[in-house]
Write a structure and sequence with these properties.
Length: 305
């Protein structure tokens, strides 16, 4: 998430009332999670296991809960609770704005696009030309939709990420400040749910077609010309490369990559990253031919008994 204008380290520290290490005028351009940080961003870290990863990431400001040596060319924000303060910054720079109408005045809708009854379109949504948005679709704030997109009834774009910190008092939610982006010629079936990114984008690229009742988690990127069948659940921070086919009732772990042109057969559990150009099946996932050989061998053994 990039700020609308450049901030200073001192200003950020003032917002969350914390110490800082670095020049007061040190430039801060945005804030992001570790997997999408860029130069100028703030990243937060609150566990020793991930200190080095955060300090050595592309982020140039690290919101951290321990005084450590500051890497050259970077700055630190010292907080007793980085998770809480990251949420404070999200709310400050991207506050929730309630809507008073079904289609926000700030929404931009392209020529030839059809909006059916009972659709909700939030603040600062952009929809391209010649789209069809069917009844009861909900499109949260800041979503971006390209040209020639079809979204079927009851689909929801932009719900919060499923991302919580377990505290003694209960689960504390990481506030979502990202977006959903659908490129040109994407089709979404009925009752799909596409969560927004925590700080970045959940993206579905050009020409991809998604069946009914599919869930896509936060910050996932689905490539061009993919086919995803019904009742598939894709976790957060997944990368699905171009021309992947995923059949029904597949589930994935978070943070994995499915390579270009892969085929994932129905009811597979994608427990790890897999290369492209092959067919996969089963839980844990294996190449389909190997898995089917194993199942045939097991069947023979059972018959022999």
């Amino acid at each position: 998430m990039k700020f609308k204008k450049q901030q200073t380290l001192a200003k950020i520290a003032q917002i969350i009332n914390c110490e800082f290490v670095g020049s007061e005028e040190f430039s801060v351009l945005g804030m992001n999670e570790i997997h999408v940080v860029e130069e100028g961003d703030i990243v937060f870290v609150d566990h020793p296991k991930y200190y080095d990863k955060a300090l050595n990431s592309a982020a140039t400001t690290i919101l951290i809960n321990k005084k450590v040596d500051c890497p050259e060319g970077k700055s630190l924000l010292i907080s007793d609770d980085p998770f809480r303060d990251f949420n404070k910054l999200t709310k400050h720079f991207n506050p929730f704005i309630s809507s008073k109408e079904s289609i926000a005045d700030t929404a931009i809708i392209g020529e030839g696009t059809i909006i059916q009854p009972n659709v909700f379109i939030g603040n600062h949504v952009t929809i391209g030309k010649n789209c069809i948005i069917h009844p009861n679709v909900t499109i949260y704030d800041n979503s971006v939709i390209g040209n020639n997109v079809t979204i079927h009834a009851n689909t929801v774009l932009g719900a919060d990420a499923f991302y919580y910190k377990n505290r003694p008092t209960g689960f504390d939610k990481l506030v979502s400040g990202g977006r959903v982006v659908l490129e040109n010629n994407v089709d979404l079936g009925a009752s799909c749910t596409i969560d927004k990114g925590v700080t970045g984008n959940t993206t579905i690229k050009e020409g991809t077609k998604i069946d009914n009742q599919v869930h896509v988690g936060h910050d996932t990127v689905i490539g061009k010309k993919c086919l995803i069948a019904s009742q598939t659940g894709i976790a957060g921070c997944v990368i699905i490369e171009d021309e992947v086919t995923i059949w029904g009732q597949v589930g994935t772990n978070s943070g994995i990559t499915i390579g270009k042109g892969a085929v994932i057969l129905g009811q597979t559990g994608v427990t790890k990253s897999v290369p492209g150009g092959k067919s996969y099946f089963g839980t844990p996932i294996e190449e389909s031919r190997e898995k089917l050989k194993q199942l045939a061998g097991l069947k023979r053994l059972l018959k022999e008994k």
